[in-house]
Amino acid sequence: KAVSPTATTVPISTAACSRLSSCTANPAALALLITSSASSTLDVSGSAFTMEAWVNIAKPLQYQEYHFHAGSHFSVAYYINVAQNCGNIVFRSHEANTDMFNLPVKKLTQPSYKTFYYTPVANALVIFRSNLQHMVEKNNSNQPRVSISANFKFN
């Protein structure tokens, strides 16, 4: 049986997200978290923002290739349904594609890595810069991996 390699994405509105029966995410709280986190280090307090959101459903053996989210500042992934081996989200540094002559490093530590992965946990929220390349590994479980993703752009 052939399986589409990439996960299904379904665009949703903020209102639709709050009506999803399996969705425990609160879009208003999510927006507040993003704006309050950003305003503590960026000059965005009181700024208006736009948000687009969608549901990702990755059936067994599906994955998402490397990509980034152009036209927004921050992106999020909120995990609803996860299983062991359902696929990590992997982030790749901008240097990973162009750094052909690496600086000598005495000891590899997390800040010197070119890639970083996060193993999804139900009800966890991952916030990252939208221009950071990322992908989701193949779902090697027998259950669908379900998450809500969103992009935020400060106006």
Question: Would you kindly provide a written description of the structure presented here, covering whatever features stand out?
Answer:
The chain is an alpha+beta fold and 155 residues long. 15% of the residues lie in helices and 35% in strands. The chain has a five-stranded antiparallel sheet. The longest helix is centred in the N-terminal third of the chain and has 13 residues. It is flat, with a radius of gyration of 17 Å. The N and C termini lie far apart (46 Å).
Fraction of residues in helix: 10-25%
Fraction in beta strands: 25-35%
Mean pLDDT: 76
Structural class: alpha+beta
Q: Give the H and E element order.
A: EHHEEEEHEEEE
Describe the global form: flat
Strand order of the largest sheet: 1-2-9-4-7
The tally of helices reads 3
Poorly predicted runs: 12-27
Count of distinct strands: 9
Can you summarize the main beta sheet?
A: 5 strands, antiparallel
Q: What is the CA-CA span between the terminal residues? A: 46 Å
| Radius of gyration using CA atoms only | 17 Å
Provide a concise account of the structure shown.
The protein contains three helices and nine strands, in the order E-H-H-E-E-E-E-H-E-E-E-E. By secondary structure, the protein is of the alpha+beta class.
